[in-house]
Design brief:
Length: 256
């Protein structure tokens, strides 16, 4: 049932986002109608890559803004962040809300972002690195590697998952993983001016072994660990935040 709601949300989201050109993410001077904002700087990459980045930023901004305000009386929040008894009325509730507010495009209190395809930290050689945070000096920077541009857009991921003939399955959360909007929102959550306390990638030890809580299997393990109250950890896991925004079933009721 929960997965079904998440899938339904994704379908609705895809319909809502198609054809609505979103302004890029801009935490300092947001302007949804301005096209490429002067506070978003591109470096490197070709026109096709910039176009994909703009789409992904717009989708990520939409995802983040849908996390505000979070209705914690939803199964989804429990599945991602932990048992509601550990969240509602605690400082964690405010922290989660504020992090999404800072990640959303209409926030006015944060910085300014550079997007680069120039691999400033030379990490794109790794076969698994699609993007990374490259904060330096006053401004946050997000760096995008060739692998990023091989991923599906959010709309493509949703279409793929909905089409069993194409190999997809709408109830398999892995089909939505690694889409470009999720990757962008994941890294927005990492930006110093956004995640407070800092959102790092947290490990999970559930079901033996120790793994970074990335991807549906492991962030779900991390969420399950909340039986022992580790909301202090889930709120610091970027993938939990990004995937929650995508699966927030509050969208279902607000869209119907
Ligand atoms: C947003 O951008 C549009 C188009 O560039 C411009 O006309 C409008 O004045 C801007 N709004 C704000 C609040 O800056
Ligand atoms: C971001 O872009 C601005 C304007 O091009 C530049 O002055 C600044 O140094 C850049 N910052 C980073 C971290 O790349
Ligand atoms: C998290 O787990 C990975 C193995 O997947 C390990 O390499 C890394 O050191 C762990 N990180 C921390 C902070 O324990």
């Amino acid at each position: 049932m929960r997965l079904y709601l998440i899938s339904l949300t994704l379908l609705i989201l895809s319909r809502r986002s198609e054809g609505t050109a979103q302004a890029p993410w801009d935490v300092r001077r947001p302007n949804r109608t301005a096209g490429v904002s002067p506070a978003v700087h591109f470096a490197g990459g070709d026109a096709a890559q910039r176009s994909q980045l703009e789409q992904a930023l717009g989708d990520a901004a939409l995802l983040a803004s849908k996390g505000i305000p979070i209705n914690f009386n939803m199964y989804a929040a429990m599945e991602f962040f932990g048992a509601l008894g550990y969240i509602i009325g605690t400082s964690y509730e405010r922290i989660i809300q504020d992090n999404f507010a800072r990640a959303a495009p209409h926030s006015t209190d944060a910085g300014y972002v550079n997007l680069t395809c120039d691999d400033p930290a030379q990490r794109c050689g790794s076969p698994t690195t699609a993007a990374y945070n490259a904060e330096s000096g006053a401004y946050p920077a997000l760096a995008f590697c060739p692998l990023f541009f091989q991923q599906r857009s959010m709309a493509e991921a949703i279409r793929y998952a909905a089409d069993p003939d194409g190999g997809g399955h709408r109830w398999d959360l892995r089909n939505y993983d690694h889409n470009q909007a999720l990757i962008v929102l994941h890294h927005i959550m990492h930006i110093n001016a956004v995640g407070q306390p800092p959102i790092t990638d947290v490990n999970t030890t559930y079901h033996g072994g120790e793994n970074r809580a990335l991807g549906p299997k492991y962030w779900k393990y991390l969420g399950i660990e909340n039986e022992r109250d580790n909301v202090a950890q889930t709120i610091r896991n970027a993938d939990t935040c990004a995937q929650y925004a995508m699966g927030d079933n509050r969208l279902v009721s607000s869209s119907c």
